[in-house]
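As a warm-up, study this chain.
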Amino acid sequence: MRVLVLGASGGCGRWLARIARARGHDVTALVRTAPSDDAVRDALGGTRMIEGSLLDPDVLQRALRGQQVVLCALGIRRAGRSPWAPLRSPPDFVASAVRGLIPAMQQAGVQKLQVISAAGVGDSHSQLSWPVQRLIDAGNVAVAYRDLAAMEAQLPSSRLDWLAVRPVTLVDGPVTGAAHAVDRYSLFSTIRRADVAQWMVEQAEVRPPLTVRDVMLRG
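Now compare it with the structure written out below.
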């Protein structure tokens, strides 16, 4: 399978590229600049990299050429963990990126798209505990959630075979295989980034179109 990873320098994106390669797939990452961080370079070793802005239609078409699936791990970056930490990305970054990605995929003939969203986006907000709802409705976390909701809203009319994955609180660690779909989150639910990535790659390999395409995921 020929896989394009967006957001490959981030925590989930690195695992998407690594796991897809380990499972024998041909992996390409579209990155703004070649990574300088040793950990990122190690994780992406063996991944074909295309440098450029994904908001540039020419760069995006070059990256999409010949691909079979797009795994998107884009997200708004903040300067720290605090809900009020300053944004390092435009407040509509992911929605804008997917707005250009959908027609580019259609033009390139790439039909399968998976995006990482978040627990609490859209109709999954009611499935969170009250304290977590308060947290994600505060500060710049709320900005990121509005961005993801706007991104998700574009998918149903895209005519793509799409899947929005809504993982609960992300933590580090190697693959455990514990990821599974749920219909409710608890206050202390977590999931490893590596497990999110493995679940997504497995779905890309075997998944027929799903009836429920907004999948809540936890470990």
